[in-house]
Task: inverse folding
């Protein structure tokens, strides 16, 4: 057996634990009590270990494996739920915040018979729209507050998918009640127009909804300075002085370079202080 | 099941999760072997204590990142090995020998003339072995100590040292050959 082979054999025996060298080494370790850490060193290290655990307790609560695992999914779920809730509760973009009213579109929709099929309702509505558009200017001049634009808009709205039908029904019934009251209180010209519309389309949504006064301009009206000015003048005609002033202030803020009609210029001058 | 029956890895996980008693048990299991490992490398007791404490501080500091992917002893001795290498590098009086595995290097010589009765007992031989061990190249000594003190296999030693298994085996073969030869040759 060559020296190399002897070394290999010795190495194999050594690795298997059968070695005089190993026994000798362990005996030497046992004979050296000083080859152990001192008691002070032991105490120092153990104290440090406990201190580290105590100081890390709070962090461990926050960053426990469970929390680490669920933190992201829980956050995402919360964000989704909140977003969905906000979207469902948010009124449809009808106007701008401020002086312009943000009525839900359902509130502005004319009352209609739920028993009528949808396609019939759509046909009838288009007829009513024609009537209502034609009457819009007259309605604006009527003593009773009116807004033909509301009924016009309601037609386009009806084409959008209904999100919460029950909610709409509830609002619709409320609207019908309000319309009836307004119709009864309205002077003759507005009421007669409503009757004309009803005669033209008996199954159509009640024209009374079209006669319901919308206290402020909707977004399309506000986007057209001339239409908005007409709307403000209609407010003045309806003796809605405060609303007219508010809208006029908003108008001047948005269109500072558009000249005002004499009547509205007087109103702007009479308002407290210069228009912003 | 009591903590005493738990594995090192389970104890370390318990310590990671805030059980300081688990650390005490773990420390008691390994402190003597680790201290000897440090002492054989550093020679001076003060230096060994400093290294030993630093290794445990690193273990304590790394507890949150600990995952039982490998044996605890492999992990712990890797920390110790790295710390000792750092010590060698910073200490100019100790140079890490560049080991040529094909060359066995100078066999450690025993100062046997000063110890006429060294063969009188196995106890003396054991002490002589310690002396011979200190004269081995650092890498060979490291491999020998990792097997003797930590009980690591060749594969685990290779993992701790960051070298291949065959390199570890070669180093160990040379170390054993030198130690055996020196003990045999001693008068």
Result:
């Amino acid at each position: 057996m060559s020296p190399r082979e002897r070394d290999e054999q010795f190495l194999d025996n050594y690795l298997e634990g059968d070695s005089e060298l190993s026994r000798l080494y362990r005996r030497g370790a046992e004979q050296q009590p000083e080859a152990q850490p001192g008691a002070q060193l032991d105490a120092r290290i153990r104290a440090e270990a406990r201190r580290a655990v105590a100081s890390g307790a709070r962090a461990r609560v926050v960053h426990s494996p469970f929390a680490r695992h669920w933190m992201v999914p829980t956050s995402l779920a919360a964000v989704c739920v909140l977003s969905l809730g906000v979207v469902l509760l948010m009124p449809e973009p009808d106007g701008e915040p401020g002086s312009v009213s943000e009525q839900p579109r359902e509130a502005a929709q004319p009352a209609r018979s739920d028993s009528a099929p949808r396609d019939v309702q759509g046909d009838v509505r288009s007829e009513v729209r024609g009537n209502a558009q034609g009457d819009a200017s007259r309605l604006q001049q009527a003593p009773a507050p009116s807004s033909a634009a509301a009924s016009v808009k309601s037609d386009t709205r009806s084409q959008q998918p209904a999100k919460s039908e029950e909610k709409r029904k509830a609002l619709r019934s409320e609207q019908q009640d309000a319309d009836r009251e307004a119709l009864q209180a309205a002077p003759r010209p507005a009421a007669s127009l409503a009757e004309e519309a009803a005669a033209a389309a008996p199954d159509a949504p009640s024209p009374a909804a079209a006669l319901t006064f919308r206290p402020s301009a909707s977004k399309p009206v506000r986007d057209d300075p001339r239409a908005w000015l007409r709307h403000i003048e209609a407010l003045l005609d309806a003796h809605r002085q405060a609303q007219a002033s508010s809208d006029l202030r908003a108008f001047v803020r948005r269109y500072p370079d558009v000249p005002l009609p004499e009547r509205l210029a007087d109103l702007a001058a009479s308002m407290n202080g210069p228009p912003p | 099941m009591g903590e005493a029956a738990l594995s090192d890895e389970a104890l370390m996980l318990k310590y990671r999760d805030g059980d300081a008693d688990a650390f005490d048990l773990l420390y008691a299991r390994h402190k003597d072997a680790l201290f000897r490992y440090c002492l054989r490398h550093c020679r001076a007791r003060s230096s060994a204590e400093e290294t030993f404490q630093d290794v445990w501080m690193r273990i304590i500091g790394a507890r949150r990142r600990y995952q039982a992917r490998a044996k605890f002893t492999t992990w712990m001795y890797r920390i110790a090995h790295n710390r000792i290498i750092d010590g060698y590098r910073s200490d100019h009086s100790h140079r890490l020998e560049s080991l040529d595995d094909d060359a066995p290097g100078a066999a450690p010589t025993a100062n046997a003339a000063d110890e006429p009765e060294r063969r009188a007992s196995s106890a003396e031989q054991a002490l002589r072995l310690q002396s011979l061990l200190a004269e081995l190249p650092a890498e060979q000594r490291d491999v020998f100590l990792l097997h003797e003190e930590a009980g690591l296999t060749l594969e685990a030693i290779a993992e701790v040292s960051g070298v291949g298994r065959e390199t570890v085996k070669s180093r160990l073969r040379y170390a054993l050959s030198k130690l055996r030869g020196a003990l045999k040759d001693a008068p």
In short: Chain A touches chain B through 34 residues (CB under 8 Å). Residues 65-89 of chain A form the longest helix (25 residues).
